[in-house]
């Protein structure tokens, strides 16, 4: 009953071992993954093993030793890292310069190139030459950068030296100015103390009274040297003013000397008015003009007497009452003229703000004008009336021009003295709104200062016309 046993098959040990190692993944040898089925003898003889699907276990990361804390004197905590983590935390080396980094890269490239055994020698030599050339280029660039930095530093040093020199000069100038300012301040303080000292002495010596203060504040009347004038006209009515002036120039021959003309101006009706300072100069002028008697008429102009204005005189006083009061109640003033003729003539009257009073304009002799304007006040009946100089200038209240009164004005529309518009001042919107006035006369004459009323005493055009009007008045 014994069966025939099959002899063992000769198997190469190397092949058997190779077959046994064929499955590359390692099988888990744990008891739970081991099969409980017994393998047959044939399987053992053939070296075959039943391969069942097994779970491949990835090696777990070995846990390193626990981190230990080392306490130092400064109580700093230092942790020891796992040697396996060094690859993750390793940072690339730092170099002092780019050239050092390039040198390190060249060395590393050559070392790695030497480790490559299968690379051809020609390729190695070419790569080595290329790496050496790159290193040379980087070296040249580094040297150029260093040279440029040195040049820039040299330039900056030169600029800083120049700036330092300029700053030193400026500091010196500032110190000089400070010294001068200090000296001037000391001198100013000395002058101020001296002025205060003399001011105290002056105040102690003089005792001002109310009357003296009033006399000092009051403006002195306008006194202007009158001119002795002649009026020259042409006998030919067809000649113009320019032609008459040309005849006068040829007759007088002022370039030859011996004659002085103070003023010359044109008037209406082709008249030329020439003014001289003295009677002698006027006689010389008339002598020169005798050679042109056939064509020119020469007439002397008699200067007018000056005028005064009596302010706020009661209206109940008639003209005769006013003249009689001046002569009888002010004998101390009028009698000082001696044997000179006393001329007292009322020219016109002006309205005052008080409806019970009026302003009286009078023409008087030059010596009476001087006495009355110096005194400043006269007695009229029961009043003490203020006396002032009256300008001979006439201004039209309709067109606001000079040289003629309202009754002789050719304009029909009234001009505003505030803005120069064709309306009354009481209807002026600018005046009601408080806007600055505009003088129409100064605006027409293209003056710089026009911010004043047309009746203002400070008007430049009025001052010019007033000077012309006073040139024919005899103040002395």
From TrEMBL:
Positions of the UniProt region annotated as Disordered: 1-66
UniProt keyword annotations, A-Z: Coiled coil
Segments of skewed composition (Basic and acidic residues): 1-23, 40-63
Compositionally biased tracts (Polar residues): 26-38
Coiled-coil positions: 124-201
Domain of life: Eukaryota
Descriptive protein name: Uncharacterized protein LOC106126637
Organism lineage string: Eukaryota, Metazoa, Ecdysozoa, Arthropoda, Hexapoda
């Amino acid at each position: 009953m014994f069966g025939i046993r099959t002899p063992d098959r000769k198997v190469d040990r190397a092949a058997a071992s190779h077959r046994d190692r064929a499955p590359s993944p390692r099988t888990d040898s744990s008891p739970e993954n081991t099969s409980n089925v017994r393998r047959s003898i044939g399987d053992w003889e053939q070296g075959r093993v039943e391969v069942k699907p097994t779970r491949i276990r990835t090696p777990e990361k070995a846990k390193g030793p626990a981190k230990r804390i080392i306490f130092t004197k400064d109580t700093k905590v230092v942790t020891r890292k796992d040697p396996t983590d060094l690859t993750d935390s390793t940072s690339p080396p730092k170099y002092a310069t780019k050239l050092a980094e390039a040198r390190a890269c060249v060395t590393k490239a050559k070392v790695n190139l030497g480790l490559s055994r299968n690379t051809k020698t020609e390729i190695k030599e070419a790569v080595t030459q290329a790496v050496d050339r790159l290193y040379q280029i980087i070296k040249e660039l580094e040297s150029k950068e260093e040279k440029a930095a040195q040049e820039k530093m040299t330039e900056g040093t030169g600029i800083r030296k120049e700036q330092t020199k300029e700053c030193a000069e400026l500091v010196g100038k500032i110190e000089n100015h400070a010294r001068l300012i200090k000296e001037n301040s000391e001198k100013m303080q000395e002058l101020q103390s001296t002025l205060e000292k003399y001011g105290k002495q002056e105040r102690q010596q003089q005792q001002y009274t109310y009357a003296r203060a009033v006399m000092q504040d009051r403006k002195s009347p306008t006194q202007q040297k009158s001119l002795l004038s002649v009026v020259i006209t042409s006998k030919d009515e067809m000649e113009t003013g320019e032609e008459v002036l040309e005849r006068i120039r040829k007759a007088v021959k002022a370039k030859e000397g011996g004659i002085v003309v103070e003023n010359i101006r044109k008037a209406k009706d082709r008249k030329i008015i020439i003014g001289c300072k003295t009677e002698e100069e006027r006689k010389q002028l008339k002598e020169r003009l005798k050679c042109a008697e056939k064509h020119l008429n020469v007439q002397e102009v008699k200067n007018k007497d000056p005028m005064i204005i009596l302010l706020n005189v009661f209206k109940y006083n008639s003209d005769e009452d006013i003249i009689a009061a001046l002569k009888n109640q002010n004998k101390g003033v009028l009698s000082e003229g001696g044997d000179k003729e006393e001329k007292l003539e009322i020219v016109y009257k002006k309205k005052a703000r008080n409806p019970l009073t009026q302003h009286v304009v009078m023409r008087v002799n030059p010596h009476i004008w001087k006495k009355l304007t110096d005194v400043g006040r006269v007695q009229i009946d029961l009043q003490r009336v203020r006396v002032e100089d009256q300008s001979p200038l006439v201004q039209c209240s309709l067109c606001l021009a000079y040289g003629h009164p309202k009754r002789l004005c050719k304009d029909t529309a009234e001009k505003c003295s505030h803005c120069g518009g064709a309306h009354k001042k009481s209807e002026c919107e600018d005046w009601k709104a408080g806007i600055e006035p505009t003088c129409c006369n100064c605006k027409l004459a293209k003056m710089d200062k026009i911010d004043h009323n047309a009746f203002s005493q400070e008007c430049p055009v009025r001052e010019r016309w007033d000077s012309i009007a006073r040139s024919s008045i005899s103040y002395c």
